[in-house]
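Notes, Module 5: Reading structure tokens.

Key idea: the token line is not a picture. It is a compressed description, and you learn to read it the same way you learned to read a sequence, by spotting repeated patterns. We will look at two proteins. The first is printed below with its tokens.
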Amino acid sequence: MSADERSLAIVVLAAGKGTRMKSDLPKVMQPVLEEPMLYHVMRALAPLGPVAVIVGHGGDVVEYYLDSNWPDTNVLWQRDQLGTGHAVMMAKNWLSGFDRVLIVNGDMPLLTTDTARHISDSHVGGCSFATFSAEDPSGYGRVLKDPRVRIVEEKDCSEEERALTEVNAGVYLVDVPPLLKGLKELGRDNSQGEYYLVDILDSFHRMGLPVSAIHLDSSDDVMGVNNPLELAEVGRILRDRYLKGWMIGEGVKCIDPSSVWIGPEVVFKGEAIIYPNVQIWGKTEIGRNVTVESFSVLRDAVVGDGSRINGYVRIEDSSLGRQVKAGPFCYIRHRADVSDEAFVGKFVEVKKSLIGKGSKVPHLSYMGDATLGERVNIGAGTITCNYDGENKHKTSIGDDVFVGSDTMLVAPVKIGDNAMTGAGSVITKDVPDGALAIGRARQRNIEDRRGLMKKKSGGGDRVKQ
């Protein structure tokens, strides 16, 4: 391990239950912008050095998430939750390979890389901890600096100390060798019977090492989350951060930013117009000059340059090419691919299908497990009958095909280039190139409809009362 690699380790404390969340999910797995709270912490800290996460309550869920999404993370178990100091004890063997450690709570999703780096750069040795000025310091440990820097828990404060507004943020930057020595000296002689990490400051003072408070300008970055109200609040703050970044950085235009929600993995390639009440989640990519109208929801979608998504469109795990028009009221899902200049219109569902360049599915249709060539026109009410009760089957439609309204394409079936189907047809056999396929009963006109109805009823004229 090189000197740089040895220099800084990060320990994230993520073993708590989060009782006030009133949830079966571990606290750090509570969703913020459709990602676990822990995701946001990891995203901020991973660029700074190796990370170890201390897990406990619901640890199997947390460990699975980390293995799947942050495979380089070291997962360490705290089987018994005996306080923050005890949690750090679980990392002592891993920490022995490093010079310094940044210790962060896993319920701080607003922490940024810049703030964490500022704390690291401000460290002068010994033990440093982050502080901020609180408008309402209730519940926080107060920071005292005379005659020496220390933290006094609120319950132990005098009236004068209670009036102080600089409080402990719960983020520490500590030299590892004296930390490991100090952990051995921690006791649990307190009302909770736990090992408190804050008590480590006394050990550093006894060793004659510096203890420093690093004051942060913003309390948002170190805001902890303890209940559903705070969870919603950090979601709004993060949403605003991401939107501000895209609006300033790429020229994204949001008509009402307060009603738009985007996830942290969303990417805008350039200018776009986003109407009110739009949601964009997952690894969605939005091209240049795209418009997304109100009440549309995009998740893991790719939208090409110049495309327009009208209102009430849902797109999931699918891609739209350039100059595509979609909606209103359509559903594009399950690896569907809508090619350049195509149109998916009103009350249309496209599932796991390819819509070729310039093709149109204007209204009231279902395209499932289908491949449409270029310049295809699908008449209203057309569906691909792709499921036989046991298996899904494919429909293949060539270039320049005209499918008449209310056509049932019973898969597996193939429609050749330049072919046409008659309106109301049920197509069960392949249609050759250039052919017209009509699959419906011959129309029969029966004269004297009223007389026929009298015969069926078995009687003569009705007697008027």
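Here is the second protein, with the sequence above and the tokens below, as before.
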Amino acid sequence: MAHIAQPLLIRQIILYIKGQSGLPVYVGYLFAVGLCISAILQAIIHQQILFRNSRMGMRVRNALSSAIYRHLLTINTAALHKTTAAQMVNLVANDAGKFEELSIFVHTLVLALLEALGTFALVWWYIGLPTVFGYAVLLLLVPIQFIFSRKFSQYRKTTMACTDKCVQMTNELVNGCQIIKMYNWEKAMEQRVLEARRRELLNIHKVSCLRAVNTALSFAALPLISLATFGGSWLMGQTLLPENIFTTLAFFVMVRVSVTVGMPQAIEKFSEARVSARRIDQFVQLNILSNKREKMENENEDYVIIMKDASFSWNDTPSLISVNLKIRSRNLVGVKGAFGSGKSTLLTAILSEINLVSGQLRLKVNSISYAPQLAWVFAGTIRANILLGKAMDEERYKNVIKACCLDIDLQNFSEIGDLLMIGDKGVNLSGGPRARYRLLVLYTLRLTYIYSTIHLLPLIQR
């Protein structure tokens, strides 16, 4: 209402200046004050709308990021091969953010329609039939916006595919940089990266050109609409009065901002958000684990793991068939078998990271600690890698280090001891088998220090 009131107040001020209103002097000042107040109210309301839309968009982005992460934790390991780490990073970093960008303009679609209808009625009231000529030009811009929307969707889909490939390629190059250096593949890999980046930039350039045309069209809309309206009025022989001209221009400026500036941006963001929604939906459609694990309470207290005719499967073919197993509490149990016999799959079944097809799996646990065969050590001190954010228990910490026979190695680090900084994946530890042994000892320390009902530790060859 504050927006629509401004052209009406401008008309009254012009009539007052022309001396045709017949109103007292103070009324003209009231119109001017009202114009200032309406402009201030419009600015306040507009900023409040942007603030609340931005807050809503931030919440939507955080909710989507959390949903993607939670779904990632429940995806079947076999289904993870259908996606890549680069795609998952893009889902959180880019696709979820598109909904936040859309939220800023989401009200524009409704606001533009209401303002266009309200402005049409008011302009028709003042100048009559020539309003149709101006709105005919305005309506011609609508199908053009839909064409731009389709193009934005196509370019967005292609760009995101190129971005996924670039991120995945860069990740592979970083992980395999030593092999690339050894075989002198730097130039070849550089050309591949540059080619992938060139395709991505080509699509970004097309989007930028399309956005420039769309923006130029939005600025050219007001002169074209005014030309059609006042040209039609002149051809019909109507007299162009100042109050009608300025009022009509003010209404057209109001409509231009919402219809030819706000709506194109809203359509562009909506197109990008729709592509992102499809990408997120494809990720959500990945198969998840069917958790049929039962938790024991106050029964069979001597056993912490019970399997009865349990069969487990990654996909459709069972990997473990009719497993019967009972493990007592406070026991050290070792599993021995040939390569590929299912030792790691058994540990994965205890972790409920594989589908339980039939039978029963019953656990009496509060928590499970697991160290995968691929060692994970982050950049930090040895103590930080062992504690993993847990509170420091000095006595238990010393007993664990002594039990794992790492006290001698720490003494070799002189006064630094367990405060020695190690790089990502333990790169600055001594090379060869000794480095793998220390990583194994570090994993054993980590699992021993954490209070858990069950500790699972696959054997790492050294």
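Summary for the second protein:
- The radius of gyration is 34 Å.
- The longest helix spans residues 25-74.
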